Every structure is written in C-alpha cells, then in structure tokens.
Amino acid sequence: MVSVIGGENAPPEAVRLAEEVGRELARRGAVVVCGGGSGVMAAVCRGAREEGGHTIGIMPGHSAEETPPNPWVEFPIYSGIGYARNSMVVLSGEVVIAIDGSYGTLSEIAYALIHNVPVVGLETWDFSYAGHEAQRIVRAQSATEAVELAMRLAEERRAARGKS
Questions:
Q1: E strands of 7-152, at which residues?
Q2: How far, in Å, CA of 72 to CA of 161, rounded?
Q3: Cα dihedral angle (8, 97, 67, 79), rounded to 10 degrees?
Q4: What are phi and psi of 97, to 5 degrees?
Q5: CATH code of 85's domain
Q6: Range of the domain at 12
Q7: Which of 27, 86, 110, 111 would suit a FRET pair with 132, their CA atoms being 20 to 30 Å apart?
Q8: pLDDT in tens, 32-64
Q9: In the chain, how many H helices and how many E strands?
C-alpha cells in the first residue's frame, strides 16, 4: 500500500500529476491509500481505478453522509476523528507520495517523518529548519519517477524489517 497525500484545492498541474501517479501505482499493483476527499485525493483515486487498481479512503467523518468519499474511493474507512486521521493515512502505507498540499499535507509529512515512513515529494512542501533533515523528503521530478522512488523505498523498508 502506498499513501498519497495532497491538497483538496489543488491546482490543475497537481491534479494531473496525482492522476498519473494513481495510474502508475495501479500498473505496479500497489493499493492507493489517501484521505478520500477532493483534489489530489480524488485524482490519484481516479487514475488508480481507471487502471484497475484499488483505493482506500480514510475519511475524517463518521459516515458517508457526514463526509462523502470521492467517487473513486473503493473502500472508505470512516474514522470520525477529523484531521487526526492524517496519521492513519500515512501509517497505512509502506511509503508516502506527497503532491502539492496545504497544512493538512504538511501535518501528514510530519507524521510520516516522525514515524520513519519514507516520503517522496512531487511539487510539495520544502523546508529547512535547524536540526532537521529536509533531504528526508526524496524529491521527484515526474509522476513516473515519484512512483519508481516510492516502490524502491517501500521495498527497502520491508527488507529492513525482514519482510519481502
């Protein structure tokens, strides 16, 4: 499973990149995990589903009536915990791909880094803060490169834990 995070109000270029990421993940047999909403989340799910892939949306609300998933979420999970569900999104994947994003995405990147989940960044947050390793976000220049890096990092993470 690969967690894909990004903004609800993403610009067209980020939406295009997210859809390409979703397609490429599906081609490689990865399951997409996201926050289940609009923008990057809808685009990655749409791309994955169009290629026959599977999608999981970890929703902030208690029900579909409260927080309906985007139409391409195959398996919605209703957390009932609002933005706190961001930790569930990133911890569900072997790796995170961050595309675009606002403060919710920034919190997801932080959760991933705190829990040593590898992060691949595609047109997303960049930061420099004394004592922190900004290079822990591995930068990609294209959707294909982001997926290639993510798959490699996920495999390395599984191998380090003794799982193949």
A1: 32-34, 55-59, 75-78, 95-99, 119-122, 137-139
A2: 32
A3: -150
A4: -110, 120
A5: 3.40.50.450
A6: 2-160
A7: 86
A8: 999 999 999 999 999 999 999 999 999 999 999
A9: 5, 7
Residue 164 has pLDDT above 60, yes or no: no
Rounded CA-CA distance 68/95 in Å is: 25
Distance from C-alpha of 127 to C-alpha of 164, rounded to nearest angstrom:
33
Q: Which amino acid is at 147?
A: V
- One-character DSSP codes across 80-92: S-GGGHHHHHHHH
Return the structure tokens found at 53: 């892939």
Nearest partner of 59 among 34, 40, 86, 78, judged by Cα: 78
DSSP label at 55? E
Residue 144's closest CA among 128, 120, 127? 120
Residue from 122, 100, 99, 119 nearest 109 by CA: 119
* Cα distance between the two ends of the chain: 14
Number of domains in the chain: 1
Per the structure block, which two tokens stand in for 7?
Answer: 């903004």
